[in-house]
Amino acid sequence: MDLLLFGTLTLIAGMALCFVLPGNRLRIAANLVSQVIGGWCILSKAIPVLFGAPSVNGVMHWSYPVNQIDLQLNSIGAFFLCFSIPMTFLGSIYAVGYLSKDIDSERHVGTHFALLSLVQLSYVIIYTVQNAFAFLVGWEFAALGAWLLVIWQHRDQKIRFAGFNYLVSTHVGLFFLVAAIVVMHGATASFQFDDYERFLKQPSVARNIAFVLLMTSFGLKSAFFPFHTWLPRAHSAAPAHVSALMSGVIHKAGLFGMIKFILMVGHPEAWMGWYLIVVSGASAFMGVLYTITQRDIKRLLGYSSTENVGLVGIGFGLGCLGLSYDSPTLVALGFGGGLLHVLNHALFKCLLFYGAGSVYKFTHTIDLERLGGMHRLMRWTAPLFLLGAIASASLPPLNGFVGEFLFYTGLLQSPPALGSGRVGLLLVVALLALVGGLSLLSTVRLYGMIFLGTTRNPHSIHEDSRENAWMIIPMVLHLCGIVAIGMVPILGIRLIEAPTSMMLAVSSAPTESVTAFMPIALLNSLAMFSALFVGVLLFLLAFRFWFLPRCNRTHVTWGCGYTAPNPRMQYTGASFSGPMVGVFKDMLKFVSQEDLPEGVFPADGKYKTHCIDSVEHKIFEILDDGEKGATNIMDRLPESSGFSFAMGLIGLLLLVSLIALN
Amino acid sequence: MKYALLTAFHIAVLLIAPIYVVGVINRVKAYWAGRRGPRLNQSFFDMLRLMKKTPVYSEVTSWIFPVSSTIVLATAVTASLITPIVPGFAPFGFPGDFVAFAYILGLGKLFMMLGALDTGSPFEGMGASREATYSALAEPVLLLGLGTLAWASGATSFQDLVIPDVSLGMNIGLRIGIALALYVVLLIEAARIPADDPTTHLELTMVHEVMILDHSGPELGIVQQASALKMTVLMGVIAAVLNPFSVSASVVGACLAAAASIILIGLLAASVGLVESLIARFRFQALPLLTLAGFVVVMFVLIIFNVGQGHIQ
User: Fold this and answer.
1) Residue A620 to residues A585, A627, B59, Cα–Cα distance (Å)
2) pLDDT, mean over chain A
3) Is the Cβ of A440 closer than 8 Å to some Cβ of chain B?
4) To pair with A203 at 20 to 30 A between CA atoms, which of A226, A446, A467, A531?
5) Domain residue extents for chain B
6) Does any domain span residue A489?
7) Is residue A212 in some structural domain?
8) Among residues of chain A, what percentage have pLDDT more than 70?
9) What are the tens digits of pLDDT across the range A333-354?
10) Ranges of chain B with pLDDT below 50
11) Is A44 within a domain?
12) How much is the pLDDT for B313?
C-alpha cells in the first residue's frame, strides 16, 4: 500500500513540476521521469496481484461525507492498471514527437503532460477504490482530464465544439452512474462497495434498475451504440495520442465498471446476459457499419472502437449467461475472451491512432480521399499500420484473432440448459462473422486509401515533419505486444488468468483454474496454427524470390488501353464502400450536396456526399422538435397577467402539497 | 501409419485436384457450348509457363504487390491443411479450427485486395470493393452453416463436425441443407457464375479477374493456383459434408470414403461448370439476395433441427 501511495504522490509531484519548471523540455523530462518512477511503484504492487498474489487491501481515513475509503487492488483492477499505466506512458512519449512544433514554440506544453499524469492518477483511483464517492471522483478526474486533452488545439471552433460535446455526453453518463449509486445508497445507506455487493446479490426490482443504470453509464463511457455519438467527434478533434489513449485506455474504465459490477452481482439473471449481448451485438454491427462510410481516418477509428467494445461486451454477456446457467466454460471463455480483447484492442487501436497521427503530421490531412501512396513515403509507419490494421480486422496470426477465437469457441459451446437460447447464440456467431467481413472491407479501404496507389494530393506533404523516433518507438512496442499475443496466445491467457478466475470463483465451478476450461492444448494448437501459417509463408516467399524469375521491368498500370492515368482516377474510399453501403442503405444516413454540370457548355460541377451519424442526427432532431414544441405552447398561452398569476398559484400549491406530503 | 497414409492422400489430392477441378469445369462448359475444350490438365501447363516468365510490375506498386500474391497462396495452403476432404480426417485439427479456416481465408482476401489497390488502378479498386462486399456477406452463411454442423455433431473440430450425430432422416436433411448453403459460399468465394464470370472480357463486369489485371508471370500463376486451391478446398468441405462414409471405420471404409470424396469433388466441379453453362451472371445488386438465400437455408435447417431435437416446443 505504501508503494501505491508513493507512486501516486510521485505522479502528483510530476504534475506540479510541469508548472514549476522553466522551459518545455525540462518540464517534459521531469514529467516523464515522474511517470516512470510513479508507474513503476504502482506496477510493482499490481503485477504480483495480476499473476495471482492475494489482493492488496488498505483503508484511507477521510473527513465528511465519507469517513473512510476502502482500497482494494484485486486482480481485475491490477489487469486494467497493468496495461493502462505503461500505455499512457508510451502515449506521453509519442506526444513528445507529435507535439515537437509546440514544444519548440512559446506554448506551455507542461499543461498537456500534467493532464496526462492526471489521467494516470485517475486510473489508480478508479481501479482501486471500494467507495462510490471516491469512484465518482476518479471518474470525474478521467473525464475532465480527457476533455482538456481533447481541446489542446482549442483555437479551432470545431475542436471546442467536439470537446463540449464530449463533456456533456460524459456527464450524461455520470448522471446514470449517480442515479445507480443513489438507488444502491438508498437500499444500503452506505457508500462502500462491500455493502453494495450484499445488496446486488439479492434479486430485487431495485437491483434490476441499478443494473440497467450502471450498464447504461458504463456503456456511455465506453461508447456502446447508441451512446457513441460523442466518440467520433472527440477522436477526430483530439491530438493523435489523446485519441489513442481515450479509445484504447481511458474509456476501458467503462468495461472495468461492467465487469466489476457483474462480479458484485455474482449470479446475474439470464436477462442481464442477454441484455448485454443484444446491446453489444448492436454496437459491434453499427460500429463496423459506420467505419466503412467514414472519410476521416480518426472518426473511422473511433467507430471501430464502438465495434470493439461491442465485441468485448458480447464476451461479458456470454460470461453472464455462464454465471446464470452454471456453465464455467462459458464464464472462462466469455470473461477471459472479453478481457483479452480489452488488452488486444488497446494494443492495436493505440498503434493505429499513432499511425494516423504520423500521417497527419506528415500531410496535414486525415481525409482518406486526399491521401494515398504513403507507403513509399513513410517507411516505418506504413508497415506498422498495416500490421495494426490486420490485427484490428481480427485476422490470424495477430492478437485480434485470439480474442475473437475465444468468443466463437464460447458461443459454440453453449450449455444445453439454454434451450432455444442456443439458437440465439448461433445467430451471434453469424453476426460476428458479418462484423468480421465488414471490418475486413473497412481495413482494406483504410489501408489502401492512405498508403497504396499514388498520392492524390502531392502538395500537402510536409517534408519537415516526418515521422520521428519518439513516434516510432511506441508504435514498435505496441506491435511487439500484438505479435506476441497473436503468435503465442498462452502469453495473453497468462495475463487474464487471475482476473478470470475471480469470475470463476463466484460461479459454481469446481476449480478456479482458467486453464481447466480453456485448455492449454487448444491455445498451443492455435500457436501451432499461426506457426504453420508463418512457416508456409516463409517457405513460399523463399521459393518465389529465389527460384522464380524476378521483376526487372515496370510499366504503367493497366487502364484498359489508356496509358496516361492520373492519381485522381484511382478508386476512392466512397466508391470502395459503395456496394456495401448499397446493401445497408436503410440504416445509414447520407447528406449530399450536388451542383451537377448542365447544358451544352457546362461550368464546373461538384458533388459532395457525407455520411452522418443517424443517432446524433436523431438527437438533434428531437432537441429541435422539443424546442419548437415548447415555443408553440408558449405562443398559444394568452399573455394576460391574470393567467400568469393563476399558473403561479397552481405551481405554488403543488410545491406546498408535495412538501406537506413528505 | 494410418495418419501418414491419410496425410499423403490429403496432400496428393490438394496437389492434383486443383488442376483437374479447373479442367473439368472448363471441359463441361466446352461440351455444353458444342466445343471439345482444352485438355483436363491444361491449367498445369499454363502455370508452368507462367512460372518461367519474367513479371512486369506496375510503376506505382510497392513491396506489398509482389508479396501479396504469395501470402494469398500461403493462406490457401494453410487453410487446406485444416479442412477435411475425407470426413473424419484433416492433417491438422484442433477445436474451433473451422473459425481459423474462415479467418485465414479472410487474411488471403485482405492481401488479394491490397495487392489490387497497390496498383492504383480504378478497375482493380472496383474489383476489390466488390470482392470485399460479397465475401463479407457470404461469411455469416459459412460460419452459421459450420456452426450448425458443429452443434449437430457435438464435435468442435472441422474434421469431425462433418459427421452429424443424429437420426437418419435428420442426418440427410441436415447434410443436404448445409451443403446447399456451402455451395452458395463456394460460388461466391471461388468467383464463379452467378457471382462472377471468370471468362468475361469486360473489366467493368469482373470481380476476381479484375483484381489481377496487373499480375503477370509468377505472380499471376501463384494467384491462379491459390484460387484453384481455395475452390478445391471448399469443394472438399462440401464433399466431406455429403460423404456418407467416414474415415473412422475400417480400412475398406476409409478407402470407400476417400473414393466417394474424390467422386463428389468431380461431380461438384461438373455442377459448377453446368451452372456456368445454364445461367447468366446475376446483377450485382441481386448478389446479396443469393447470400440471403443461403442464410435462409441454414436458418431453416437450424430450426428444423431444433424442433426435431426438442429444443423448441
Assistant:
1) 21, 10, 49
2) 89
3) yes
4) A226
5) 2-308
6) yes
7) no
8) 98
9) 999 999 999 999 999 999 999 9
10) 313
11) no
12) 44
